[in-house]
Amino acid sequence: MRLYIKYMVSLRCKMVVKEELNKLGLNYSFIDYGIAEIVDDISVDQREVLKKNLHDCGFRLLDDENSRLIEKIRNVVIEMVHYADELPSVSYSEYISGKLKLDYKDLSNVFSEVKGITIKQYITIHKMEKLKELLLYNEHTLKVIAHKLHYKSPSHLSKEFKKIYGLSPTFYKELKLKRSSVL
Question: How many CB atoms sit inside 10 A of residue 133's CB?
Answer without folding.
Answer: 11
